[in-house]
Design a protein that fits this description.
about 15% strand; globular; about 525 residues; alpha+beta; 16 helices; 17 strands; single chain
Length: about 525
């Protein structure tokens, strides 16, 4: 990796955007002479300014903005994309814009750090404007000296006109956003968790505006606190509304989720084809993770979340993401992984696979019990039922099967009573969560629209029951200990019932064995 090029001494003209302070100045060798600056600014070909056609999702994003606008008449809505997050010294994590920003702009993996969408209230709704740091001219110091945004460092960046045409959304330079933030008042709402700096500045401006207004009314002593509380409460209301806006997916979102599922299926097959190499390596779980991540980068943007590649007893650890263990012949490996495509929509799929291609009798019993629970949950999905009923259907099977194996101190029927729940020892997580731009999508939606909500056509969520028998759990017969199984599929609610979007990835024990045999032949 090349060294950061922040100059050792300040240039004569301040850059348009100042890099974050990093420990780089003592090793910088970037020239600062006038001759160098003049020479590097000259001799460049003219840029071509062809404007793109609006991307497919632009029309969908505009419709989403209209729906949010209708919910917040007279309110200024500020949605930052977020900025780069430091990984170590002068390296950053890959940038990912906030999902609410993406949903209302249509700007996904090609979005710019530090951008901000503002919906300014008008007489008949809102006027939307996208603010971002436009590309620097080649006569600018930041062109060659700013490793965050300089084109010498990160490549060509779009112009305001290009982004405006691409997203069918008016665009302005990031410097113009300062006036918007400074004008914040009690009628300004912000997505708080995205950009701490913007949130703090808006809070200060709202407090100042409230204090000034209250002083005019001779009520300065109490007004500032009231304004801050009102603003914060309004921000929470905005966050809920933006989450709830994503509960039902539109046609574009569903197509993107199908693309993510298809890419994920190819990633699972890549892993199975590479199983001989994985079995031979002392940290085979790392190879599983790497092989799948390779597919995610080849066919999408990245993985939608940290891959879980849990072999043997590690499969009993629900969020095992260290992935540093061996993959042993005869064990099961639980692979929970999803490809995120360039629009940021992600799949979330789990299969539990026999590493030698064949389930043992006990492994098969556990696997088929989990599949039975998943099938029971899927069977009831249709518009009009409560989301929580999906979980209840899976739990009825789980309780019955662990009771049959002698693991419960009470009957299955007694265990299922709310005051008991003994069977949950072996599956403490829920059966389903919404899926979309976030792997756990719509998480800030109100309870009565989420867990207690009524299913509608267009909703997408997981069904993912499991059984996890810890190696040291003395309530479990010895032959079951150390076995962990989860089967997870991505489910679309249709007008007539439901569709399993990931049904193409084999699920039954027999089909899994045939799948592995076919890929290894």
């Amino acid at each position: 990796m090349a060294d950061s090029a922040i100059p050792a001494s300040a240039p004569a003209t301040a850059p348009e955007a100042t890099p974050k302070p990093r420990a780089t100045e003592n090793r910088s060798t970037t020239p600062v002479s006038t001759q160098f600056r003049d020479y590097i600014a000259s001799g460049w070909a003219e840029r071509e300014e062809a404007l793109p056609q609006a991307r497919e999702q632009a029309a969908y994003a505009a419709e989403r903005r209209a729906r949010i606008s209708a919910l917040f008449p007279g309110k200024r809505l500020v949605l930052p994309a977020g900025g780069l997050k430091q990984r170590s010294n002068d390296t950053d994590f890959p940038f990912r814009a906030h999902s609410a920003f993406v949903h209302l702009t249509g700007w996904g993996a090609d979005s710019e750090p530090g951008s901000m969408l503002v919906l300014e209230p008008t007489a008949d709704g809102h006027e939307a404007t996208l603010y971002f740091r436009e590309r620097a001219g080649r006569d600018s110091d930041e062109f060659y000296a700013n490793p965050e945004i300089g084109e010498f460092w990160i490549g060509p960046r779009p112009s305001l006109a290009q982004v405006a045409a691409d997203l069918a959304l008016p665009a302005k330079g990031i410097a113009d956003a300062d006036a918007v933030i400074a004008a914040a008042d009690a009628d300004t709402l912000v997505v708080r968790e995205t950009d701490r700096g913007i949130t703090d500045r808006i809070d200060e401006a709202r407090a100042a505006a409230g204090a000034a207004a209250s002083a005019a009314d001779s009520a300065a002593d109490s007004a500032e606190g009231e304004v801050a509380a009102t603003g914060t409460e309004g921000d929470a209301e905005l966050a809920r509304a933006l989450s709830e806006l994503r509960l039902v997916k539109d046609a574009y979102e569903l197509a993107e989720l199908r693309r993510a599922v298809d890419a994920t299926a190819r990633g699972f097959e890549d892993v199975l084809r590479d199983m001989p190499r994985i079995l031979a390596h002392e940290r085979g779980e790392r190879l599983v993770e790497g092989v799948f991540n390779g597919r995610a980068r080849a066919d999408g943007n990245a993985v939608g979340y940290d891959t879980i590649a849990a072999s043997g007893p590690h499969a009993c650890i629900l969020h095992w993401t260290r992935n540093d263990g061996a993959v042993a012949d005869g064990d099961l490996i639980l692979l929970d992984a999803g490809v995120e495509v360039e629009s940021y929509y992600t799949a979330d799929i789990t299969r539990t696979l026999p590493t030698n291609g064949r389930f043992s009798d006990v492994q098969r019993d556990v696997y088929e019990a989990v599949r039975e629970a998943a099938d029971a949950a899927f069977a009831i999905v249709r518009p009009g039922i409560r989301f929580r009923e999906v979980h209840a259907a899976a739990m009825a099977v789980i309780a019955r099967r662990v009771a049959e194996w002698g693991m419960l101190p009470v009957s299955a029927e007694e265990a299922l009573q709310p005051e008991n729940q003994h069977h949950r020892r072996y599956m403490v997580h829920g059966t389903s969560h919404h899926l979309g731009l976030d792997v756990h999508d719509c998480a800030q939606a109100r309870r009565d629209l989420y867990i207690d909500g009524v299913l509608e056509a267009g909703m997408v969520f997981t069904i993912e029951p499991g059984l996890y028998f810890q190696p040291d759990d003395l309530t479990v017969p010895e032959q079951f200990r150390g076995i962990g199984v989860r089967i997870e599929d991505d489910i679309l609610v249709t007008p007539e019932g439901a569709e399993n979007l990931s049904i193409g990835i084999p699920r039954t024990a027999d089909d899994v064995e045939a799948w592995i045999a076919g890929l290894s032949s």
